[in-house]
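Holo prediction — PMV.
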Amino acid sequence: MPAITATAPGKVILFGEHAVVYGRPAIAAPVQQVQARAVIAAAPLRPAGEVLIDAPDIGLHSLLSELANIHPLAIAMRGVMDELGLERLPACDVRITSTIPLAAGLGSGAAISVALIRALAQFLGHPLPDERVSALAFEVEKLYHGTPSGIDNTVVTYNCPVYFVKDQVLETIQPLAPFDLAIGDTGVKSPTALTVGDLRRLWQVDKRTYEAIFDEVAEITQLARQAIESGHPEHLGTLMDANQACLERMGVSSPDLERLIAAARLAGAAGAKLSGGGRGGNMIALVGATSAQVVAKALVENGAQRVILTTVRKSF
Ligand code: PMV
């Protein structure tokens, strides 16, 4: 039996992070330049149930049976087994690799889960529909984030730009005109669960203030959706700046992010903001064909550990 391979892209949140946890909409898009990959091959000479996992990017080489029950890879694999009513897996080798930086707001955890869930289900002869893949990956997300909105697993599974509202039917977005982003990594690891938890504590003591900020973000996100769907991405720069101002008021920005955001704007980006959980990780800047390289250079000169240039476009 040939080895089964599945991949899943990274993602950026374009608008609405954090507010999305409180029921407001958010827009996210896949980033194809970085990918997670799961490869599963049968190991017929080993005893049934012996599953060897090799994940060099996280320094893991272990039998599934030796992983803690709450290990994300174990939750993902057991989720597939439960879904298919299986108590035991055939002996196999599972190799997981990823070029998506960890804890950087690019959805690495969700992409690894989605690639693994897809590969395993297919290996077992029962490929799962996207809806189930996303739902199983969401169970793993809960472990990382505590109270995730579900946006990461959704955009990574469907692999196209999405307009996402928690607990509502998914809406995909088709940009009428493509637009380009520079994604700059501060290199600062910032687990999303921490910023989400800190903001929740602030919200608990002053709901009025934070609900008002979330409402502002919701309006910005709506306008951004219109700009994207009507072929006016040039409006997105101002909207990104406005969204960044709201994120600063939520307390999830950081001097490192703001240095990169300022550098991008100065170098000709039409707008810029942090993307994802904040306090580190990545920022995004809206760039044009001529400003892309200039902005990328300015980001590196101002401390970005890596810059990805990507285009958000219609999915086919
Ligand atoms: O840090 P990331 O890219 O995983 O983004 C999380 C987005 C938040 O809105 C901050 C949290 C969530 O669950 O939606």
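READOUT: Residues 108 and 298 are 25 Å apart (CA to CA).
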